[in-house]
Amino acid sequence: MKIHPTAIVDTRARIAPDVEIGPYAVIGPDVEIGAGCSIGPHAVVTGHTRIGQRNRIFQFTSIGEVPQDKKYQGESTRLEIGDGNTIREFCTFNCGTSQDVGVTRVGNDNWFMAYVHLAHDCQVGSHTVFANNAQLAGHVHIGDYVILGGFTGVHQFCRIGAHSITGISSVVLQDVPPFITASGNTAKPYGLNVEGLKRRGFSAETITRLKRAYKTLYRSGLTLDQARRRLALQVKECPEVQVMLDFLAGAQRGIIR
Asked: Do 111 and 35 belong to one domain?
């Protein structure tokens, strides 16, 4: 291990042999850090936190601290971070609470820019990008390949579906279905995330059919239940529509419309 002499690392922490820990960093007793990780200067990693392999955690981050929740009474909850994530300066990731699954989870290969906040019990997928100051309240679920524009704020218990994108300073108060571009205060739908889908290898034919699904949901004048029934008829020719249907079936706060 390459641990700077000014770092404070609890002897009970489980740290892979090649981990780098910078000056004045603090590593708590219940922390596990996998191979190939680097922890920047003045970073604090505490709580029951498990960090996978090849993560880069930059200076002044706070990882695994107790939830910002008045109901929290010191329960043994956790934070789990996957592999290959980049966590930039001043990010704050909190552990879960007993009111939910008790775990805040982050997947693999995510890019968190400076000042991002993940509150308790958030569930973040893989391959996401959170621009500067994106903020998640408690119990938020973020799908794979989501991009959050800078200063996006997401209300507690909201979900953002895979391959969606939000514009700068968006305020998300309801669920954002997969494949959607959302923007505004409060966030509204502004079409399909076409550029994102192209970059991820979706064919032109699939994108055209997803556009049709978007129009069914947002431009047809149908109620949500009517739109879901019509979308079900489109699954055979475009299996990706099933992703949207599954998401709609789990909507608890309603969707942006």
From this structure: yes
